[in-house]
Amino acid sequence: MFSIGLTGGIGSGKSQVADWLGQWGAAVIDTDLIAHELTAPGGGAMAAVRARFGNAAIRADGGMDRDWMRKQAFGDPAVRHELESIVHSLIEQTLRARAAQASGLYLVFVVPLLVESGRWHSQVDRVCVVDCDAETQIRRVQARSGLTRDTIERIMTAQASRENRLAAADDVILNDGTTDLDTLRARTRGFHDGWCGRAARCIAGHPTHE
Description:
Blueprint: E1 3-7, H1 14-23, E2 27-30, H2 31-38, H3 46-53, H4 66-75, H5 77-101, E3 107-110, H6 114-117, E4 126-131, H7 134-145, H8 149-158, H9 162-168, E5 171-174, H10 181-203
Parallel strand pairs: 1-3, 1-4, 2-3, 4-5
Helix pairs in contact: 2-5, 4-5
């Protein structure tokens, strides 16, 4: 199946883009949602999280305390890497299983750390970046989550730079501070229509790369 790797920095709007693509018929697999499932009460990663980080990392309901873990992980790269070593292999297993069963016009992998991983570009047909400037990212995340500017900047520092994301992109959907929802939707629809055409050529056995 023709595939898109969809990424963007925190607050870029990639989740909204992914929602529209799913509504229009793409099969969407979101690695963030998988991570939430794995660290929810009874999730597949919770035994290892508790064993490594102790009860401080666990909420009363048995799920991972994401606020506590976020503070630890973005304050200490070693903690972040240990958490990733627990969760990422489980995400990969779940992702492959769901991709094998997916049906739709084409396949979309939503991967916040796509560029950082260094391996996704060879596994998808196109990399699409939802792009915006840093100040817009910070403003949006503050509005939706209440995180402090310092916390958001630490998260952004742990992610690829805007320049590196754009350098890895085959397609770019601009969603900066001047973009309203209707404009973002129209831009996304234009790429969706193009990807549907590429997917059809892929099914017909024609190359999808230009």
